[in-house]
Amino acid sequence: MWEYAPAPESRDIANLRPNYRMFVDGQFVEGSGEPLKTVNPATEEVLAEVSTASQSDVDTAVKAARRAYDRVWSKMPGSERAKYIYRIARQIQERGRELAVLETLDNGKPIKESRDVDVPTAASHFFYHAGWADKLDHAGYGPDPKPLGVAGQVIPWNFPLLMAAWKIAPALACGNTVVLKPAETTPLTALVLADIIAQCDLPPGVVNIIPGAGDVGAALVGHEDVNKVAFTGSTDVGKIIQGQLAGTDKKLTLELGGKAANIVFDDAPLDQAVEGIVNGIFFNQGHVCCAGSRLLVQESIADELLEKLHARVSTLRVGDPLDKNTDVGAINSREQLAKIKELTESGEAEGAQRWTSSCPLPDKGFFFAPTVFSNVSQAMRIAREEIFGPVLSVLTFRTPEEAVAKANNTPYGLSAGIWTEKGSRILWMAQRMRAGVVWSNTFNRFDPTAPFGGYQESGFGREGGRTGLEAYLDV
Amino acid sequence: MAAPTTLPSALADAVRDESSLRRFLHGLPGVDQVGVEQRAAGLGTRSIKKAAKLHAIDLAISMVDLTTLEGADTPGKVRGLAAKARRPDPERPDVPKVAAVCVYPDMVKTAADELVGTGINVASVATAFPSGRSTLDIKLADTRFAVEQGASEVDMVIDRGAFLSGRYGQVFEEIAQVKQACGDAHLKVILETGELVTYDNVRRASWLALLAGGDFIKTSTGKVQPAATLPVTHVMLQAVRDWKSQTGELRGVKPAGGIRTTKDAIKFLVAVNEVAGPEWLDPHLFRFGASTLLNDLLMQRRTQLDGHYSGPDYVTVD
Question: Fewer CB within 10 Å of terminal CB in chain A, N or C?
Fold first, then answer.
């Protein structure tokens, strides 16, 4: 046997500090909320204490953003805004290793993902949108599209830095100013991004970052001087926000949950389909709103595919997220782990057949072994509810029509995957999928040029691409 | 067409006649280029350090088919290569010996004489290597000559012209007959993936060679670019893995050409470990066809043990 020796990335690279403060009006300041302790989910140790915003801090931040909008940012030529945004992108690259290690410590995701996906994609979102800043006249929204004003943005814990980039980059490019609340369990990389923004000499107040729990988010999106709200997170909270904003003139985009179908036809490139299924559900421990959590496989190849899938999933290395050879890291929080356990137990109780990888799990920290349920039916909770963990539900179908019907039979509609070697079938299926993103013969590929967003309870509005600019322009 | 081994019924049907063979090969699942290249690049980021690296280096040395296939080869060069094969690092007797020495047929006797009793195999290329452009009779005579001279392994090339024009039966027949001419010698079937171009072709050629009785499937002659790439090797490793799950038999894979550094070799070993499985981490089932790789392995081995780099002057040039 050939055991890979541990190859941990050094945690010193993260420049972890005992205390982090919020970033308002160009300054790092102590918030007057109750400080929160952020935990490394792989070890359960406290990483740092982070100050949080109170209601009055939210008000201060929004006022700072308004001042920056009125006096500087909305008047600045696009070509000048672009320079700042390019600078942020380059600094993210410059401090890429620091950000990657910090993200892995705070979130629990494997270093290979924070290093190869989160950080480079975050930088590319700033690069891409910097390019738009002086070309908005040509974006298809009229000759001189105007910004909206102050954007209040609330982001989740699954891609803390990347989601901050998705939110901040287009807002700035279009001339808006920002108040952003990172997730309660993962505030650290957003605050390093604040440090980068300070280093880049952005005018004070253009970007403000205020950590805190749900109440801070609620105060932010409800603030009367916020013109635009962008939220990524759970469908439940999304509904509350939509209700809260009803009757106001705030513009809203929501990117919520999903229960995506990954559909494999009998003529699919099987080995790559297996990779795509694995990437679809075990990437980022399955903490992905667009995760391919329902596998729909054509009955004639179901046994063969399942056998290959089990063999492949058995090779996934679960453990220390800082180890460069780890494929699946830690579940982000105790609460999330409990939710995953509860839903998998319901799967067993409802009669689905459970298979769990026999990989060893660390003694400490929040870990969950990759799990595949077969013999799942549409009526089971594990086929309907978002598990947001490394748990795949396998269903079968016989005809393309049945695949469409089952794939669309969900209140969500964020993404879908289609695996077939037949081009015409890809197009036929893609037209019928009620999903904002349809991947074919691949899964979980993200690119700033491609708009991302959902149908139905997965939310509305698009992020990324030319289409994504609309959310931050007065059109 | 006669299958050389007893095959499960599904596979026996595949080799019943030319049209069955074609249907079988064209019925294999396709290979998605983007997907296989993404997976190969992803696995290529594995970080192999310390004891795992040292183990990999020794394993890789024991898997080397130390090769010289030049028009300018001489008996003296082949004797030198044999000496290197026996004791790759003269100052370090604990370095494992390589798996085989690989030469042209007329050099087989020289190599065999040098390697008697060492356990190192003599591999000979044959069948009008590297182009394969000759008649079947000449290819069989070439094979028999190599075996008579003392080759215990034969590296044949397939007829790429026949394969690409869809004459799979002809390719099958040729491999099966060469296998017969090999007698007890192990047969490695060179697909020359650089000329097959698509991954779908690589998969079909791999299965064709396995069905016809090849003990190993080998990527390249080393004379055509691109030679051994990681994604091509992934596809071939998938073929032997699937062959095992259908027949229970273990067959080998040999990437050859262009693997020059320890870092590259380790990427291939990671692929062997995680695509085919740890069972294939064995010189009987995986080989590197290489000439310059060995020295880099030796230098990296010294670095691992001594804690510092030495340099090319501390390993022998041939």
Answer: N
Distance from C-alpha of A221 to C-alpha of A230, rounded to nearest angstrom: 9
Give the pLDDT of residue B311.
Answer: 86
Residue A447: inside a domain: no
Q: Check the CA dihedral A122-A123-A127-A130 and report its sign.
A: positive
- Strands A371-374, A353-356: pairing kind: antiparallel
Chain B hits for A276, CB-CB cut-off 8 Å, are 35
Catalytic residue of the set A184, A255, A463, A470: A255
| Confidence check: pLDDT of A173 > 90 | yes
Q: Which DSSP string corresponds to A184-220?
A: TT--HHHHHHHHHHHHTTPPTTSEEE----HHHHHHH
Question: Which ipTM value was assigned to this complex?
Answer: 0.94
pLDDT of residue A28: 98
CATH of B9-305, one of 2.60.40.60, 3.20.20.70, 3.40.50.10490, 3.10.20.340: 3.20.20.70
Compute the C-alpha angle A416/A421/A425, nearest 5°.
60
pLDDT digit string (tens) for A37-77?
999 999 999 999 999 999 999 999 999 999 999 999 999 99
Asked if A325's CB is within 8 angstroms of B47's CB, the reply is yes
Asked if the Cβ–Cβ distance from A315 to B35 is below 8 Å, we say: no
Q: Which of A2, A7, A315 minimises the CB distance to B55?
A: A2
pLDDT (tens digit per residue) in A12-32 = 999 999 999 999 999 999 999
Distance from CA of A5 to the nearest CA of B (A): 5
Structural domain count, chain A: 2
Active site residues of B: 155, 218, 254
In this structure, what CATH number is given to the domain that contains residue A243? 3.40.605.10
Q: Answer yes or no: A255 catalytic.
A: yes
Nearest 5°: phi and psi at A416? -155, 155
Is residue A469's pLDDT more than 90?
yes
For the domain that residue A331 is a member of, what is the CATH number?
3.40.309.10
Please write the tens of the pLDDT for every residue from B238-263.
Answer: 999 999 999 999 999 999 999 999 99
Q: Are B258 and B228 in contact (CB under 8 A)?
A: yes
Q: Do A271 and B278 touch (CB under 8 A)?
A: no
Q: What is the pLDDT of residues A316-340, one digit of tens each?
A: 999 999 999 999 999 999 999 999 9
Residues A241 and A269 in one domain: no
Residue A3 lies in a domain: no
Which residue numbers in chain B have pLDDT < 70?
Answer: 1-5
Interface contact A269, partner B, CB < 8 A: yes
- Mutation site for A-interface testing, chosen from B43, B47, B202, B238 by largest number of A Cβ within 10 Å: B47
The beta-strand segments (E) located in A303-364 are 353-356
Which residue is listed with tokens 């650290």?
A188
**Percent over 70 (pLDDT), chain A:** 100
